[in-house]
């Protein structure tokens, strides 16, 4: 391909990409964004803003502001922290900001850039795919048409709107195929190493998906050789293995911390049955994952094309992936053998593009009578699928897809007519019209998909500039209160318990230290802290979120959360010891009058093993009275345990029947009422514990007095599998538990009184805080131990990557207070240094250097195939 063609390819790809985004370009001028209102606004742009700010400040690894604190380099590697596209974008943005060509980026800026980055990314995808198809012997025009089919797929737009980082994988896939073909045909490993190093570095999850595809691709290549001179299978395996190891080593600086972050996350096992085969959508015109182009069906039914090896290879591979699309078991395998997730269908789009490109290459050998039957068969398939869909989902729902059916069927008639015209006359102008028709059809499909399926059905049109400034996302009234807190508070580590609705990343959006996080991957110690150890209700059950501290004053003080902000109608749930600090028309902020210092020392030691079976209140008291350690080294300090007073209480029912642990609620808002008998005079709060499940597996809302939380259905892939609920409520005469109509398993009822004696005692200690300096990923503490303190406990989540030195000597870090950081103190002066680097970072850097050396060696060797073979 000469320079003129390369320039033409670049311009054509950019123009075609812009045309594919036509609907969203219109929306952008109307003040709306190319982003989903849920994960897009809750995760994608807050993570971009957060990472850019951290990187700009020279902080690359750890932040106290990331949820309750965490190593964002490894935990956000699934998203953007190691995304090549994001890093390149951030570099350009930083340069523009440094040159004062733009103001400091904010959330609106990152929402705006999605459209423009997407246009550039999609053009690069089509260019890469064109080169891959070209290398396989397909002419440029046909290769570009196939690349357009790949890039202009509904999966691309589904991913870029909801989970933008998913689309990066579509850029690396053609490079991977090109590198694989280079190894098979020439024994050269350069492109293979580059493609895999980029993939490993960029995203470990899609590297796994590509590894599965690579194995399938190679197997099909062995079945269908595409050229006369190819390396032997043994030679290929040697090169693939060697180049793969080198690619892994090059990417180790990113890949190893990212995989550790994934392994250090916790997801409950998926318990539902996974069928081998299940028809869940119509891939001809009504699928949210892939819509097969009409020309592909016409080609697949054309027997003559299968005589050409390149076409046969792509056709068989495409048919195989179509079968896998209807296999939930395959979807589970692509998702790490967890819950079925349909995120891999862009692989099918690529092979479909290759099939169409190879078909166009060989179409001149097809006669008119050889495409008449395929045209009839394809027409019959569209008709059959329309009728079948109406029977499966019902005529009413089928009507919702009627417009898609009409559009796709018209495109089918166009493609069939242009195909017949070219096959009949064999004139180059008709081939050009056919290719133009294929590309135009893809443009029509994706723009209609953007409007009908994405925007109207999933509410993308709600993601607007106005919404980003609204109280539902980042209201001005909320910002004023946050600023007032930050301006009045001298402690930089103070947290604010506040989030908007279900947007757990509100602290990242509004730029404050919070108590919530929404991410697919984070420190499992915090999940266990919430679910198992302290059983903190988050107001919404989820495996990918944590939020609030259950309005429990002990935890607020222990975790530096000294401000509590809510809508005014929720103020009755303010934690004990919190007094009104500020208010606005709709919100109120309360401040903790019983704060505890960031650095806490302890003489009394408790052990998790000895606290098993204890109430959450006992565990809170142990943390306040001393420190709780995971590994037992001696005898636990004596702890006075709180009494369960449920047997001294009266239980009444309301529109319900409760017997033998089964609660049948006859009407909505029915349930039980607990009436404690003779509460102690000093009691301030109640802690009520119980196990609850919906017998029929439905999700439900649970209300305890003025507190409301929700539980997920049994079928949800985001359920925690934890059914014990602990609710703190202010002292009242009655504890009212209310549920929707249904049948529930309600058992293990427990009730405890809290007088906050331990909290008052801990808060009243007159302790001089040691000198502390926290700069990026390094913490320095100077502490003089003159009172025989045994341990120091910090509210920093326990996480691999922290290294501790005391007085210049390395010391072990222990898990303290169930999920946080603790270590043994020495007598006298303690010069403490804590440094965080991503797990195994030094080894990773060494492997990266080793990989680069290995790549230079192998590429130089494979440049002369004879030296390798």
UniProtKB/TrEMBL annotation:
Transmembrane residue ranges: 76-96, 108-129, 135-153, 191-219, 239-263, 283-301, 313-334, 346-364, 371-393, 405-423, 430-449, 840-859
One protein family per Pfam: YfhO
Keyword entries, A-Z: Membrane, Transmembrane, Transmembrane helix
Domain of life: Bacteria
Database matches in InterPro entries: Uncharacterised_YfhO (IPR018580)
Protein name: YfhO family protein
């Amino acid at each position: 391909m000469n320079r003129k063609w390369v320039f033409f390819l670049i311009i054509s790809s950019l123009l075609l990409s812009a045309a594919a985004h036509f609907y969203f370009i219109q929306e952008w001028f109307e003040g709306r964004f190319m982003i989903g209102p849920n994960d897009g606004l809750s995760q994608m742009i807050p993570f971009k803003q957060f990472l850019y700010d951290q990187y700009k400040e020279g902080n690359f690894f750890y932040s106290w502001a990331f949820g309750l604190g965490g190593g964002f380099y490894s935990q956000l590697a699934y998203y953007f922290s190691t995304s090549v596209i994001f890093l390149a974008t951030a570099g350009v943005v930083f340069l523009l900001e440094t040159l004062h060509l733009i103001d400091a980026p904010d959330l609106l800026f990152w929402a705006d850039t999605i459209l423009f980055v997407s246009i550039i990314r999609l053009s690069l995808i089509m260019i890469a795919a064109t080169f891959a198809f070209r290398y396989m012997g397909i002419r440029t025009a046909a290769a570009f048409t196939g690349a357009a089919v790949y890039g202009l797929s509904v999966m691309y737009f589904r991913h870029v709107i909801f989970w933008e980082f998913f689309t990066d994988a579509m850029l690396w896939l053609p490079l991977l195929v090109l590198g694989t073909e280079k190894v098979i045909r020439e024994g050269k490993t350069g492109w293979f190493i580059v493609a895999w190093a980029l993939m490993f570095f960029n995203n470990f999850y899609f590297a796994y998906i590509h590894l599965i595809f690579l194995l399938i691709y190679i197997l099909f290549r062995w079945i269908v050789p595409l050229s006369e001179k190819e390396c032997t299978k043994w030679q290929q395996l040697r090169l693939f293995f060697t180049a793969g190891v080198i690619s892994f080593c090059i990417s180790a600086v990113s890949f190893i911390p990212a995989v550790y972050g994934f392994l250090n996350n916790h997801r409950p096992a998926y318990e539902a049955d996974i069928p081998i085969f299940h028809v869940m959508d119509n891939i001809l015109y009504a699928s949210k994952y892939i819509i097969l182009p009409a020309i592909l069906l016409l080609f697949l039914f054309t027997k003559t094309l299968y005589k050409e090896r390149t076409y046969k290879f792509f056709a068989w591979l495409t048919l195989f992936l179509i079968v896998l699309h209807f296999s939930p078991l395959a979807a589970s395998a692509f998702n790490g053998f967890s819950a079925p997730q349909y995120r891999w269908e862009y692989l099918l789009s690529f092979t479909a593009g290759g099939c169409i490109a190879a078909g166009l290459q060989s179409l001149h050998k097809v006669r008119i009578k050889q495409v008449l039957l395929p045209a009839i068969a394809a027409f019959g398939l569209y008709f059959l699928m329309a009728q079948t869909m109406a029977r499966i989902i019902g005529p009413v729902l089928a009507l919702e897809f009627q417009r898609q059916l009409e559009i796709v069927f018209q495109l089918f008639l166009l493609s069939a007519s242009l195909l017949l015209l070219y096959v009949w006359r064999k004139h180059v102008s008709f081939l050009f019209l056919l290719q133009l028709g294929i590309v135009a059809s893809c443009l029509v499909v994706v723009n209609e998909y953007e409007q009908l399926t994405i925007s109207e059905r999933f509410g993308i049109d709600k993601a607007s500039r106005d919404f980003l400034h609204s109280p539902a996302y980042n209201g001005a009234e909320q910002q004023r209160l946050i600023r007032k807190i930050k301006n009045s508070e001298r402690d930089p580590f103070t947290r604010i318990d506040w989030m908007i609705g279900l947007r757990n990343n509100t602290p990242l959006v509004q730029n404050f230290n919070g108590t919530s996080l929404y991410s697919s991957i984070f420190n499992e110690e915090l999940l266990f802290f919430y679910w198992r150890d302290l059983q903190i209700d988050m107001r919404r059950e989820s495996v990918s979120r944590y939020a609030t501290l259950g309005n429990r004053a002990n935890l607020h003080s222990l975790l530096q959360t000294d401000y509590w902000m809510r809508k005014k109608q929720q103020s009755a749930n303010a934690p004990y010891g919190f007094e009104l600090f500020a208010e606005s028309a709709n919100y109120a902020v309360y401040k903790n009058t019983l704060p505890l210092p960031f650095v806490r020392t302890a003489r009394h030691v408790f052990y998790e093993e000895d606290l098993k079976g204890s109430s959450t209140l006992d565990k809170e008291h142990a943390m306040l009275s001393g420190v709780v350690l995971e590994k037992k080294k001696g005898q636990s300090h004596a702890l006075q345990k709180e009494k369960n007073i449920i047997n001294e209480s009266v239980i009444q029912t309301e529109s319900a029947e409760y017997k033998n642990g089964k609660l049948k609620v006859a009407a909505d808002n029915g349930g039980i009422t607990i009436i404690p008998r003779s509460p102690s005079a000093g009691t301030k709060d109640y802690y009520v514990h119980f196990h609850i499940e919906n017998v029929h597996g439905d999700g439900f809302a649970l209300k305890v007095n003025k507190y409301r939380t929700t539980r997920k259905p049994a079928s949800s892939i985001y359920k925690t599998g934890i059914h014990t609920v602990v609710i703190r409520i202010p002292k009242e005469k009655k504890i009212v538990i209310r549920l929707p109509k249904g049948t529930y398993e309600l058992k293990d009822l427990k009730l405890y009184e809290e007088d906050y004696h331990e909290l008052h005692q801990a808060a009243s200690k007159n302790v001089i805080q040691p000198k502390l300096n926290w700069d990026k990923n390094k913490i320095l503490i100077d502490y003089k131990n003159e009172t025989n303190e045994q341990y120091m406990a910090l509210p920093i989540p326990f996480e691999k990557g922290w290294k501790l030195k005391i007085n210049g000597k390395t010391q072990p870090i222990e898990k303290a207070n169930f999920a946080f950081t603790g270590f043994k103190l020495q007598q006298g002066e303690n010069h403490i240094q804590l440094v965080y680097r991503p797990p195994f970072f030094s080894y990773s850097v060494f492997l990266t250097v080793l990989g680069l050396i290995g790549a230079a060696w192998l590429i130089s060797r494979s440049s002369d195939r004879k030296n390798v073979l």
